[in-house]
Write a sequence for this structure.
């Protein structure tokens, strides 16, 4: 749980939170069998917000963001993403998934396709973008994550940090309005964590709405406008990063912070 | 002019050493022999023992092969020529060559038809097997089954054309409706195909096949290695898609589909192929209306296809299970629907993992086509056991005939195995 800080100045000119609601979760409950993983979650995320979700393992933070694009089903309550309610209707689910990008802990690139094909697949098949246009856009985003020269390689030939940046580019190629990050740096070596975090910071600087499950508290301090602390399937505390780190309210939060920050 | 100046520490090279060949013990044949055959006492003993065995085998078989008689017209004449020496009687192969390849009833003036079909098969299979070839060649692959049917069975051209039109209609209907609803498109396509087939069946005049350009040949008259090849190619190419469908069905969330697939697979796997073939030859006739005589070849194809599809389904299920869950989640999170995720992400990887298993089933299936000899179809083995060995001229020529059959099957199966190894290398992208 390092407190890696980016060494450069962060450009906050475009990091604006608008009044438009991007995600609204109300009274949401989820069970795995008889185990109550998520308990009465209420959360509203506005367009342009950068939210970091922290908490001990098993607290339900990954499950929460996986519910937002229906990788997990919730049993009670309402989730509205970008104006569309998540229900059992497959059309709604596919619509939400194409608007919400997701980055996984283990990258989940498609190993049988080249980097470029990984990035163009969904735009071509889901968005019906012409192949040429999709390739141009893919190259644009690959340049943005600084690996255009790897476009014709296969994922197995890239380092972990490079793979994760490709995964971010792959999500961006769908032009999502919201990005979900599920522990994007937990499977990486320390020097690779930084290159991925830098990519995420750049994304935040452009005003992307981001929900990020991470243990990178440096990233939370620098980029997030809100930190949410979860424990035992509940939201225990949420606050601006400055307040959250310097002046935590609940005992559970204090204990958690002392464990991951204090040495 | 020595290289080293013994008294001084500093050293300057004054002469170049010319490159010399390595000692004889480190190069070429000698080195290879030392490393691979005589690396230690035990291995040397094994090498010598193996050489002795090979020598004994060759000592007995080589004269038999080299003294072989190729031109007589019966076993008795062979024995006369050999005068008690060891020697094979290969004349049975030359004399019964056509019977071994085409069976004993296929009209001899029509042998060019299956030959042409075999040559065209190579062209039809090429774009499927070697996917670097231009995709447009697949059009010929799509037409080929109907063309081959017409060539081998003969009769009126109307039959394969109507069959082709039925499939074309089904494809067209499916394309039109697939955007709105999969179920409508699927059942609409089936209905359209049957409509075309029934209408076309009415249009084909009675007895159109009688004086067609290619004389009709009934399925009963097919035989020899041609029959094995036909069954093998047809059943492999049908059972692969059916196996994929069964494997996906077994993973389905819909209980009805899932249980249908599970019961089918478990039932078919639990029954010997021979019983299925007896069902095809005897029992299946009871299930069809009495006047509709469903072709025996078709019945056998259905049974063998079902049998190998069940095995292929289990092999592919193993491939599907080997994929990490993250691949499904990544495909889902990008908004791909089920069909796209399966076709673009899951199946290409699962099938790649399954190649050795699928090839195993395909090779087994091809060899199992000889079992049709049990239900009195005269395939290669059926021909050997039946008409040829039973004839007065060749009664008793076992080694030559069965050795020839083994050789034919070995060549094809070895080819399949080599292709699969090439395919695995070609598809390797993980660079581990």
């Amino acid at each position: 749980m390092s407190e890696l800080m980016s060494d450069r100045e962060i450009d906050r000119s475009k990091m604006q939170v608008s009044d438009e609601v991007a995600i609204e979760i109300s009274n949401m409950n989820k069970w795995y069998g008889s185990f109550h993983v998520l308990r009465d979650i209420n959360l509203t995320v506005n367009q342009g917000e950068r939210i970091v979700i922290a908490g001990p393992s098993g607290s339900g933070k990954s499950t929460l963001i996986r519910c937002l694009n229906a990788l997990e089903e919730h049993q009670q309550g309402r989730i509205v993403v970008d104006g569309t309610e998540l229900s059992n209707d497959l059309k709604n689910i596919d619509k939400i998934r194409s608007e919400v990008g997701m980055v996984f802990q283990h990258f989940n690139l498609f190993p049988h396709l080249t980097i470029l094909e990984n990035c163009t697949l969904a735009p071509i098949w889901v968005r019906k973008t012409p192949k040429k246009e999709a390739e141009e856009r893919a190259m644009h985003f690959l340049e943005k994550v600084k690996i255009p020269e790897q476009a014709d390689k296969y994922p197995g030939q890239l380092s972990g940090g490079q793979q994760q940046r490709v995964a971010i580019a792959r999500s961006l190629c769908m032009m999502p309005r919201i990005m979900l990050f599920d522990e994007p740096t937990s499977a990486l070596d320390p020097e690779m964590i930084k290159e991925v975090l830098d990519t995420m910071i750049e994304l935040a600087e452009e005003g992307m709405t981001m929900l990020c499950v991470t243990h990178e508290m440096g990233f939370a301090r620098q980029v997030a406008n809100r930190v949410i602390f979860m424990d035992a399937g509940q939201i225990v505390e949420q606050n601006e990063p400055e307040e959250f780190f310097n002046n935590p309210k609940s005992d559970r939060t204090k204990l958690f912070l002392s464990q991951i920050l204090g040495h | 002019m020595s290289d080293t100046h013994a008294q001084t520490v500093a050293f300057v090279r004054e002469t170049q050493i010319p490159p010399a060949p390595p000692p004889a013990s480190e190069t070429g044949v000698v080195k290879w022999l030392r490393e691979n055959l005589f690396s230690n006492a035990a291995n040397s003993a094994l090498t010598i023992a193996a050489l002795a065995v090979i020598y004994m085998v060759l000592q007995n078989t080589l004269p038999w092969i080299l003294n072989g008689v190729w031109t007589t017209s019966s076993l008795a004449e062979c024995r006369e020529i050999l005068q008690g020496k060891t020697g094979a009687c290969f004349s049975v192969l030359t004399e019964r060559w056509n019977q071994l390849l085409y069976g004993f009833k296929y009209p001899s003036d029509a042998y060019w038809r299956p030959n042409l079909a075999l040559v065209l098969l190579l062209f039809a299979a090429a774009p499927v097997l070697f996917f670097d070839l231009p995709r447009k060649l697949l059009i010929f692959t799509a037409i080929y089954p109907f063309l081959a049917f017409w060539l081998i069975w003969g009769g009126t051209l109307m039959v394969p054309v109507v069959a082709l039109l039925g499939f074309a209609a089904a494809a067209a209907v499916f394309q039109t409706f697939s955007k709105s609803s999969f179920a409508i498109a699927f059942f609409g396509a089936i209905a359209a195909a049957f409509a075309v087939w029934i209408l076309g069946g009415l249009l084909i005049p009675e007895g159109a096949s009688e004086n067609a350009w290619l004389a009709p040949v009934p399925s009963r008259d097919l035989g020899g290695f041609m029959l094995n090849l036909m069954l093998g190619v047809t059943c492999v190419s049908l059972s692969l898609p059916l196996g994929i469908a069964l494997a996906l069905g077994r993973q389905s969330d819909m209980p009805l589909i899932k249980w249908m697939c599970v019961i089918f697979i478990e039932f078919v796997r639990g029954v010997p192929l021979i019983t299925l073939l007896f069902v095809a030859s005897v029992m299946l006739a009871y299930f069809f209306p009495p006047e509709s005589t469903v072709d025996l070849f078709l019945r056998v194809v259905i049974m063998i296809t079902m049998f190998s599809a069940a095995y292929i389904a289990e092999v592919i299920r193993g491939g599907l299970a080997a994929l990490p869950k993250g691949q499904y989640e990544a495909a889902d999170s990008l908004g791909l629907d089920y069909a796209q995720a399966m076709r673009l992400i899951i199946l290409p990887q699962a099938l790649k993992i399954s190649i050795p298993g699928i090839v195993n089933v395909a090779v087994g299936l091809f060899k199992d086509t000889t079992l049709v000899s049990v239900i009195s179809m005269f395939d290669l083995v059926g021909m050997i056991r039946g008409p040829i060995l039973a004839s007065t001229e060749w009664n008793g020529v076992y080694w030559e005939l069965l050795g020839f059959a083994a050789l034919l099957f070995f060549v094809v199966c070895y080819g399949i195995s080599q292709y699969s190894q090439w395919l695995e290398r070609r598809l390797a992208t993980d660079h581990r």
About this structure: Chain B touches chain A through 22 residues (CB under 8 Å). The CA atoms of residues 76 and 393 of chain B lie 7 Å apart. Residues 158-213 of chain B form one domain.
